[in-house]
Structures are given as structure tokens and as C-alpha cells.
Amino acid sequence: MTHARAERAALSDLFARLGPDSPTLCEGWTTFDLAAHLVLRERRPDAAGGIALAPLAGYTAKVQESLKAKHGFEGLVELVRSGPGGVYGLVPGLDQAVNTMEFFIHHEDVRRAQRVWEPREMPADLEESFWKRVRAGRGLFLRKAPVAVVLHRIGGGVALGGAKDGPKVEVTGPAGELLLFCFGRQAHAKVDLSGDEAAVARLMDASLGV
User: Taking the model in full, what pTM does it have?
Assistant: First the structure.
């Protein structure tokens, strides 16, 4: 089983256990909303543009609500579980290349929104793939960082991003935790931060990610 499919299966199991009304780290979204989002991005490409483009967000939200009404929570969970859907199931390798990170992040969005949770120890090859994504995407992920950012991966590796000048904040942790940090989950990523106190506070409040 690929890592993408393993994360998909684990998230589907967690959805089923928690039900539709549990919180997530996605602001304003319950598990029901997140399940609908995952189905939309795979199976409704006509509406997926609003995920990243604000002018299209209204249509995306409308389609997301229609998916909830049509399938219900249990139906959406089964669609997530049975994937990859759409183009992700048709193009060899695309599911692993794109959905590994997507499902890892959203799996943690559900796990870490619960009252009790613990960080997972990730397989070495998965950590390596996360670090490659962090290094390749740091310019995009950290483009809104108001300070210079130095990412230190536990186990080896350094990547620079954020502002070109001014104060610097060093962020240290496993690759998966750095990925979550760079995708706007700063308050929930298990990382160590060092630097000027005001600069750290500004980075923690910044809107990071794509």
C-alpha cells in the first residue's frame, strides 16, 4: 500500500469513528466539511478552482454544500475511502505524488483538533519525501512570512525562506512537523522556535501555506 492510500484509509477510519460534527484545524470546518472538500477536489474539478482562487470560492463552497446534501457524511466518507477518484485515479503515480501530502496534512487536521492526541512516528522514506516537498516549496509556502525563516530538519537538512532581510527565526523539527508548520499549522506543529520574541510571535501569526 502506498503512503497516500495508507493516509486515506486512516483518515477515513478516523472520520467514521468521530462522526460528522467533530472539529478540525481547518477554520470553520467540521469533519463533515473536510470530507466534502476531499471529495470535491478529486471528483469535481469544475469546482476545485475556488480552493486556491478567491474569486471562485463562492462556487466551490456552493458545490461543497451540495455534496454534503447529496451524499451525507457516511456517503462522503466512503467516497474518500474508495479513492483516488477523478484524474488522481487515472494518471499513474499522481495519487502518490500529490495526495500523500494532502491526506497527511488533513489527517493531522482532524487528529490534532481533538482533545487528546500524540505525534506519530513517520516512516523514514515518508519523512524524506516530506523534506523534499518542504525544500522545493519553501519559497511558496513561506512567501507571506514577515521574517526570515531557517528550517532545520532533525536528522539533517537546512532550508531558508521567508523575508530576505530583518529578524530571523529558526524552526527545528522532523520533516512532517516542518511541513505542517509551513502549511499554516504553526500552533499545532511540534517544532522548536528560536529567535527574537517579537519575530517569533509575528511568524506564528502569519498566514503560511499555498
Answer: 0.94
